[in-house]
Design goal:
Elements (H helix, E strand, L loop, with lengths): L35 H15 L4 H13 L2 H16 L25 H6 L7 H19 L1 H12 L2 H32 L4 E11 L1 H9 L9 E11 L2 E10 L2 E11 L4 E6 L6 E5 L3 H11 L3 H17 L3 H13 L8 E11 L2 E12 L1 H17 L1 H16 L10 H17 L1 H4 L6 E7 L5 E7 L7 E6 L2 E2 L2 E10 L2 E12 L2 E10 L2 E12 H4 L6 E7 L3 H5 L2 H7 L2 E9 L3 E10 L2 E14 L11 E3 L3 H8 L5 H10 L3 H11 L3 H22 L1
Parallel strand pairs: 6-21
Antiparallel strand pairs: 1-2, 1-20, 2-3, 3-4, 4-5, 5-6, 7-8, 8-9, 9-10, 10-11, 11-13, 12-13, 13-14, 14-15, 15-16, 16-17, 17-18, 18-19, 19-20
Helix pairs in contact: 1-2, 2-3, 7-11, 9-22, 10-13, 12-14, 13-14
Length: 678
């Protein structure tokens, strides 16, 4: 059923329309069952009955309605008028009783009564009131952060207010930790099935060529060099490809493949020979070289790849890590019991200043021990941590990798608990009064931390850290510093924020003297929190560089130099462009690109297309397949100096034995150096 006045839907229990207030004159439940004519008669009888002051008037009204006579109609109207005088005890309590009006026999009333008796309701009044209420509600909503901060600042203790401020910022810190976990740690595990390719390209400008010519250097070298690389790992096969290119011409491509399943390794120099040099990975010499580079033998490395695959598929997801990080970060503030609060303070960086509230606290040895004890005890008994460690051990055991000396996951977790217990026992020894710290936190009127200083007053060395980040609309100032034994390294500057990106000017200083000036443009702060740098930077020597570093001559030389960095980083790719300029002259540029993707299928060389080396004669057989003619032609075309061409000609004339001795010395030097770096 719908309202006869406004058409709104009515329900069975409604006595008045919820929209316009018109009285319901017929039962809602009968609207779909009774015929239209019967519904009209019943409605008319209902009106008479509701307003009848007594049983007699009610009976007479019903009879009059049934006969349809003029006298019946008059009596019906009289009964309605008399019933209206008793409306106060008939209508619901929310409808006020109104006195009858003498004008045309009608009632002076509002809302539902007016609608029943024929007076039109003025709905614009209620709509205006509703609109005003909505506007008033938007005012605190727009200033919700300020109101919330105001409430906590004035109606909480300094300790409670400090914890509230820190916990708000730590929610973002937990998200940052989980993002780094996904983008770096899990990606590192995923290297069992990963391909990474890239290129390093260097181009010399006119200014660099002129300087080399003035210095007497041979400038017949190509102006552009590029080194490409690719690392591919899939199905227990790894591949590394290294290429050298000059002025757009590919000179050499070295292709190395290790097949752990078939226990064979291959090396090919594609421009010199179509035949691969191959060795058995179980050969003593190969195992030793492999161990020097990777820190483990080939078989153990293959098992590690299998373990990485299992761990990657079973490690906690982002939400779990974020929840754990937030839980344990929040526990840092459970034992804060002495905070001093001061309001109306002002911090200033350059021309940017902001009024704030300072929260000062001192953590002595006992405070730090209590905080660490609570965290370690929770870590020791945390069921989520127990389930995680036990599951990871069981997964590692599936690979049969002999690196964990425990029978099962339960024994491994018990050892973890024992280690925690040992740390707890040694807290009193490891945390001394030298570790006590003083900290001041600067909070704006929205409860955001805009600065912090940390000092260790009892440390063996005078150490302090601080940063200030006042804001004025879209403008901001920034100063961050590290002080050690009266020496200070700091970054200071100002800029603007727009769309989550900052642009500004900053200076790196040493003991107050500028070393480097940096112009920043469109540094994306959202991606930075995920570990990716996206923005453009122009680096120049500061005016105080010579004084700060004691290199006045270098400072004068570098005063007109500009190093331009354009960095773009995403999960699947990276690009770094560097360009060096002196005023308008270009010295050169460097471009470094990286792309990441899932591992692609690796084509292992066939036995027929390879020469397996077991002794010197096998190597000489492979050396006989090497063709130098094409390489020498390409190098001549690229304009290599005569000295380089003579060296290549000399290599081409060597036999297998001579080249083997030459390469062995170079290979030992490179592998030993790389092994130490790894």
């Amino acid at each position: 059923m719908v309202c006869k006045n406004c058409g709104s839907e009515l329900f069975e229990e409604d006595r008045f329309c919820s929209k316009c207030g018109t009285r319901v004159t017929e039962p809602v439940s009968d609207t779909h069952s009774a015929p239209e004519e019967e519904r009209g008669t019943e409605a008319e009888e209902m009106v008479i009955t509701r307003f009848a002051p007594n049983a007699e008037a009610e009976t007479e009204g019903a009879v009059a309605a049934g006969n349809g006579t003029k006298d019946g109609k008059a009596e019906k109207a009289q009964a309605g008028a008399e019933g209206a005088s008793d409306m106060g005890r008939i209508l619901p309590p929310c409808i006020p009783e109104e006195k009858p009006s003498k004008a045309k026999g009608r009632l002076r009333c509002k809302n539902a009564v007016c609608a029943v008796l024929g007076v039109r309701k003025k709905t614009w009044i209620s709509r205006a009131v509703l609109g005003i209420l909505c506007i008033l509600a938007l005012v605190p909503a727009a200033n919700g952060s300020k109101l919330s901060n105001y409430f906590h600042r004035y109606f909480s203790s300094p300790e409670e207010y400090y914890c509230w401020v820190e916990r708000r910022s730590l929610k973002e810190s937990a998200r940052v930790i989980s993002d780094y976990y996904i983008n770096y740690f899990l990606e590192y595990l995923h290297r069992y099935d990963r391909s990474v390719s890239g290129e390093l390209r260097v181009e010399f400008g006119e200014a660099a060529m002129e300087v080399m010519e003035e210095a007497g250097a041979d400038i017949s070298w190509p102006e552009e060099w590029a080194v490409s690389f690719e690392s591919n790992n899939r199905d227990s096969v790894i591949q590394g490809v290294l290429g050298l290119e000059t002025d757009g011409t590919r000179l050499l491509t070295m292709d190395g493949i290790i097949d752990f399943k078939d226990e064979a390794a291959y090396l090919g120099i594609l421009e010199l020979s179509k035949t691969y040099l191959a060795v058995d990975t179980e050969q003593k010499e190969f195992v030793e070289y492999f161990y020097d580079v990777f820190g483990m033998e080939p078989e153990e490395y293959s098992e590690t790849l299998e373990l990485l695959e299992i761990l990657y598929n079973e490690y906690p997801d982002k939400k779990e890590i974020e929840a754990l990080a937030e839980k344990y970060l929040n526990m840092l503030f459970d034992n804060i019991n002495d905070v001093k609060m001061r309001m109306g303070r002002t911090i200033r960086v350059g021309s940017i200043s902001q009024t704030c509230t300072t929260l000062e606290l001192y953590l002595d040895k006992n405070d730090i021990q209590n905080i660490m004890t609570e965290i370690l005890e929770e870590l020791q008994e945390d069921e989520d941590v127990e389930a995680l460690l036990t599951e990871l051990f069981d997964l590692a055991a599936e690979t049969e990798l002999d690196i964990l000396k425990y029978r099962d996951g339960d024994e491994y977790y018990e050892a973890f608990q024992d280690n925690i217990a040992q740390i707890l026992d040694e807290l009193d020894y490891n945390i001394t009064y030298h570790d006590e710290l003083e900290m001041t936190v600067y909070v704006d009127n929205k409860g955001r931390i805009i600065g912090r200083t940390i000092e260790f007053p009892n440390s063996w060395n005078e150490i302090s850290f601080s940063y200030m980040n006042p804001r004025n609309g879209s403008k901001f100032g920034y100063k961050g510093s590290i002080n050690v034994n009266s020496g200070e390294v700091s970054v200071i500057g100002s800029g603007k924020v727009f769309g989550g990106k900052i642009s500004g000017s900053f200076t790196l200083k040493l003991d107050g003297s500028g070393i480097v000036d940096v112009e920043v443009k469109n540094l994306d702060m959202t991606s930075l929190k995920k570990g990716y740098i996206n923005g453009k930077f122009t680096v120049m020597a500061a005016s105080g560089m010579g004084r700060a570093l004691g290199v006045y001559s270098a400072s004068s030389i570098l005063s007109d130099m500009q190093l331009i960095l354009d960095i773009s980083m995403r999960k699947s790719s990276e690009k770094l462009y560097m360009e060096l300029k002196e005023n308008a002259e270009r010295w050169g540029s460097l471009t470094f690109t990286v792309k990441r993707d899932k591992g692609r299928k690796i084509s292992v060389p066939s036995t027929k297309g390879s020469v397996f080396v077991e002794d010197q004669r096998d190597f000489e057989d492979w050396w006989d397949t090497v063709k130098w003619e094409d390489l020498i032609k390409k190098m001549n075309k690229a304009g290599f100096p005569s000295e380089v061409m003579d060296a290549v000609e000399e290599y081409s004339q060597m036999n297998g034995y001579e080249i083997l001795e030459e390469l062995a010395d170079d290979l030992r030097f490179l592998i030993n150096g790389f092994g130490r770096w790894y």
